[in-house]
Design a protein that fits this description.
With about 450 residues, the chain is α+β, with helices and mostly antiparallel strands. The chain folds into two domains: about 300 residues, Beta-lactamase (3-Layer(aba) Sandwich); about 130 residues, L,D-transpeptidase catalytic domain-like, CATH 2.40.440.10. It is about 25% helix and about 25% strand. The strands form seven sheets. Strands 6-5-4-13-7 form a five-stranded mixed sheet. Strands 8, 9, 10, 11 and 12 form a five-stranded mixed sheet that branches.
């Protein structure tokens, strides 16, 4: 008997190893070329490049401090109760649904179940309204009947205790994201609510996270037309310029596309693809279907793949974009307006203040979407072939990087970038977000902002 190595197997091993080596080095350099490539032949496909020009970073702090005195207040459920009309207040911290008439509390009902925090089906927070009412809604996702259902956004409803088609009640545990009441309580709320009745979902622990009072220097002048750097946990703004100005946001739009897709389409649902969508146009293969989870990874990690078109077609482009604008209002993005799902249009606009609210929603309610933007790569199987999708954000591989999304200047002329980064403050780690709009070199300026915060936290005594 002779030892041997199959030539095809050996060739695959060599090529697979080359793919892994390429992925490793691609995620360790500051300037990266994002790519999707075949594991079978390691063909690297072209993608735009975000360049960090080599320039000196600040190493000292000037004596004269400069900092914003502004912060984003967390608010409470009571802050949203209107002075007139009907209102539904939903407190997910204390698990209670409250009914108000002309600002007077007229009833309170125990919430029996909500979506699991941190999961794909976590219950959203924010301002909404009752969109539909059905005495019995059949969920095609859970295959259950939901009595006295009131839809408020996407796949999310207020309803009574659900039953299977056999009539058997579902067991205890987390819901699929809906606000689940007893059936009697749901009937009461159903009778109270009208189509269009406003509601607010509060889901933030009432704990005070202290601000740091950072003294930032004047040594760095960011050239972006607008920017904001803030502590995502306390809401403290530490650097800003024209943060209220409404500007094109380009690829940052995809974060809202991902949120709406997740909250209105099941994460595991397979969607049909058409020619020119997702992998078809760019890579010359024509899969018939892809699951939403894989489409979200493609949406957030790679600009070459048009997964937004597949996602938007589930409701139709106009309806999907309407959901995006509804969601923006729901989470407090006061001036934001979206026109498409892929971030190409200059009509996708928001202020840096708006994008902070979006960032905080991602941090508090959609941590798994934030996690997608943080990962260095994702292996996706399409049409019986495996692909490695590399993250395009220029700070992938930096130990402080905690997620974000970037736009390439080659596409739009000016860059926008949203970057979460973590900084050590004594024994504590704090999460910041840097939002830059209208930048000639967003990667360099974001790096300067990160270094500025690091220097300030290192010099302060807390």
């Amino acid at each position: 008997m002779h030892d041997y190595i199959d030539k095809n197997a050996f060739g695959f091993i060599v090529k697979f190893s080359a793919a892994l080596i390429f992925a490793f080095f691609s995620t360790t350099f500051a300037a990266k070329t994002a790519a999707v490539f075949f594991l079978s032949d390691t063909e690297v496909l072209p993608a735009p490049l975000i360049v960090v020009r080599e320039e000196a970073l600040p190493t000292t702090i000037q004596a004269v401090p400069k900092r914003s005195e502004r912060s984003f207040a967390a608010g409470s459920l009571e802050d949203h109760v209107p002075s007139a009309g009907k209102f539904i207040g939903i407190d997910l911290v204390n698990m209670e649904l409250r009914l108000y008439q002309n600002a007077t509390l007229i009833g309170a009902h125990k919430i029996l179940s909500k979506g699991k925090p941190g999961s794909h089906w976590e219950t959203p927070s924010g301002s909404y309204e009752v969109k539909t009412k059905e005495k019995n809604h059949f969920s095609s996702i859970g295959r259950v009947n939901m009595p006295y259902s009131m839809q408020f956004f996407g796949n999310f409803f207020i309803h009574g205790w659900p039953t299977y088609e056999s009539g058997k009640e579902v067991g205890d545990g987390y819901s699929g994201g809906c606000i689940r009441l007893s059936t009697d309580d749901a009937e009461t709320v159903f009778s109270f609510a009208d189509l269009g009745t406003s509601l607010y979902i509060f889901d933030r622990e009432e704990q005070i996270i202290s601000t740091l009072g950072l003294a930032l220097s004047d040594s760095v002048e960011l050239a972006s037309e607008a920017y904001l750097v803030a502590d995502i946990q306390s809401g403290e703004v530490v650097m800003e310029s024209s943060a209220g100005a409404k500007m094109p946001v380009y690829a940052i739009t995809k974060l809202m596309t991902a949120i709406v897709a997740n909250e209105s389409i099941s994460f595991d649902k397979e969607l049909a693809l058409q020619d020119g969508e997702a992998f078809s146009e760019t890579f010359g293969i024509f899969p018939e279907r892809m699951v939403v989870g894989d489409l979200l990874h493609l949406l957030l990690l790679n600009r070459e793949v048009d997964s937004a078109s597949t996602l938007e077609r589930f409701y139709g482009k106009n309806n999907f974009v309407d959901w995006m604008n509804d969601k923006a209002r729901a989470i407090g993005m006061r001036t934001a307006r979206f026109a498409d799902t892929n971030g190409i249009s200059k009509e996708n606009v928001a202020s840096a203040d708006d994008l902070f609210e979006l960032s905080r929603y991602l941090y508090v309610k959609k941590s798994f979407i934030l996690g997608i933007t943080r990962r260095p790569d994702k292996i996706i199987e399409v049409a019986e072939r495996q692909f490695i999708v590399l993250n395009e954000h220029p700070f992938v591989g930096d130990e402080s990087f905690r997620g974000g999304i970037a736009t390439d200047a080659q596409e739009v002329g000016k860059q926008s970038m949203l970057t979460f980064f973590r900084v050590s403050v004594g024994a504590e780690k704090r999460l910041f977000v840097a939002i830059l709009l209208g930048s000639e070199n967003a990667a360099l300026e974001t790096r300067r902002a990160i270094e500025e915060v690091r220097l300030a936290t290192a010099s302060n005594t807390f």
